[in-house]
Each structure stands twice: as structure tokens, then as C-alpha cells.
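2024-03-11 09:14:02 DEBUG pipeline.ingest accepted 1 chain
2024-03-11 09:14:02 DEBUG pipeline.ingest length=114
2024-03-11 09:14:03 DEBUG pipeline.predict start
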Amino acid sequence: MEETARKLIGMFAFALWDKKDKQLSLVRDRLGIKPLYWSLSPGRSIIFGSELKALRAHPDCPTDINRNAVAGFMRHNYISGPQTIYQNVFKLQPGHIRRFSPRFAHHKTLLGYE
């Protein structure tokens, strides 16, 4: 999957479920044109989507405001990733892959940036 992701050109954000390894991979394009947000619910479920409102529709999505993100927005008129306005909800950085399995969560820069 990593090799294929490196070869992709264009704007994309997607999730890929590996049935054999029971692993979910979230992938985002190098320029970060397409957003991808994710969170782990208290029950360890993974919630993800291309818009925050998609995550908010899930009953287990965290809703506490991230005060550091608010401060950053007031200073720079922008919330820098991986932070979002919500505590424990994150934006996958451009050119990154995040993997989740029953045993671990792993984050790696794979798409041309090290």
C-alpha cells in the first residue's frame, strides 16, 4: 500500500481496510488539498471523515473545545494541523499515512516528505 500511495498523483484522501491484517490506513495527498479528520472514541472506535461535521454526526465524537487551537486561531486566523477546534479530533497532515490495528496506532510520513 505504501508503494502505491507514493505513486499516486493528484488530490485525494482515503481510508483502506486491510482485511487480512485487520488494519485501517488513512492516507492524505502530498499538498493536503483534500482534508481527512480522525478521532478515537472512548470505546476505541475510529471515527474519520473528510469534514468535521461528518465526525460530529457520530455520537461518540469528542465535542470539547481545544483551547490551544482557539488560541492559535485568534493569533494566526488559522488552526494548524494536526489540531482541530475539537479536543482529541485530529487532521491528518499532508502526505501522511496513519495506520490503526487492534494492537497499535502508527503514524508515518510516506508520500514524499520526511
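2024-03-11 09:14:41 DEBUG pipeline.report The mean pLDDT is 87.
2024-03-11 09:14:41 DEBUG pipeline.predict end
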